[in-house]
Amino acid sequence: xxxxxxxxxxxxxxxxxxxxxxxxxxxxxxxxxxxxxxxxxxxxxxxxxxxxxxxxxxxxxxxxxxxxxxxxxxxxxxxxxxxxxxxxxxxxxxxxxxxxxxxxxxxxxxxxxxxxxxxxxxxxxxxxxxxxxxxxxxxxxxxxxxxxxxxxxxxxxxxxxxxxxxxxxxxxxxxxxxxxxxxxxxxxx
Length: 189
Prior knowledge:
Elements: H1 2-16, H2 21-74, H3 84-98, H4 102-118, H5 123-143, H6 146-167, H7 173-182
């Protein structure tokens, strides 16, 4: 209660004080003019300096968001689909950034497995995927050093196991057999 009484007294004292007539007539106008000039100048400087920066930041944000969304949408695309070229570009970028060129090899093997399971008329796309897989294996054989060759052999061994696993359940045995043969480095098993 003491606090409320204090505020009531303070309000009475404030209202009892009369400012000089000049201040009451012109004081607010002068203050408003001064404030308006400073605010306008401040707003203009901020708008002039920040507008290009904000526009650039927004453009970059939209571009990154669009590219990320496009990459995510293309992640499961297969040969012949609309977003497949985007997937291939994304794989190229990922291979360069990570330094792991075998990302592409894994993607081609996965495409072979998926296409062999779908089999609704994907035989042409499956043949193309097997050819791309064979070309990828041949390229990596040429480029790898001894340490990477061991990793490549392990990866190809896993691919071969996957291909053998689906071999009996697919109608496209010829293409899967070619993929199995491609996993053999220089005739090695």
